Amino acid sequence: MNIFRFAGDMSHIVSFILLLHKIIKGKSAAGISLRTQELYAIVFCARYLDLFWNFASMYNWVLKVCFIVASLSIVYLIRFGAPQKATYNPEVDAFPVQYLLAPCALLGVLINENHYSPWEMVWAFSIYLEAVAILPQLFLLQKQGEVENLTSHYVAALGAYRGLYLLNWIYRYFTEPDYMQRIVWVAGLVQTGLYCDFFYHYYQSKKGGMNQPIKLPV
């Protein structure tokens, strides 16, 4: 493991902590896309199906468990938690996720690392889906026009996680002779690209102070 991957993992964990803090302590799911959270739950459950038979390290195993438990907990709290359920507005969280799930499933079957392995198809599907899972959240924020402070930090931490993983892949490419993961690279570039506009507005807003809300063009 290198410093870029570790920093990326920590940034990912911070994103979960920020979101759970907002939902549990703030008792609010306002500004959070349940659809994005459900997509992430699908991503982690699909990708980490190997949790029960593939043990690489305790660090890796713990992260897998944490991501699955955290993502499912967030979905549960938004759907059924009190008072969080009452603060969630499904009318603004209306991105048609079927247009993400179906193409990602098809790509998972057609473009993967082993066309004879159902597990590789599911793994590839999870990679493609993670690349676009943030779209409903960005769509919701765009409709609202203003991003609440804690929500903006959550999205920024997610974007930082992906950016740090890009550095991790570059580092591994130059230090590991046999390292080659084209599917992961392409999906990661797409995912990072989706954050660019948000990061521009995040930077512009936070120049005036970290507690400043983000204004997005509607």
Outline the structure in words:
This protein is mainly α and 218 residues long. The chain is 71% helix and 2% strand. The protein has nine helices and two strands; from the N terminus they run H-H-H-H-H-H-H-E-H-H-E. The chain has a two-stranded antiparallel ribbon with strand order 1-2. Helix 6 packs parallel to helix 9. The longest helix is centred in the last third of the chain and has 27 residues, at 149-175. It is globular, with a radius of gyration of 17 Å.
Short description:
The protein is mainly alpha-helical and 218 residues long. It has helices spanning 3-25, 34-47, 58-80, 84-87, 98-110, 118-132, 135-144, 149-175, 182-206, and strands at residues 146-147, 214-215. Helices cover 71% and strands 2% of the residues.
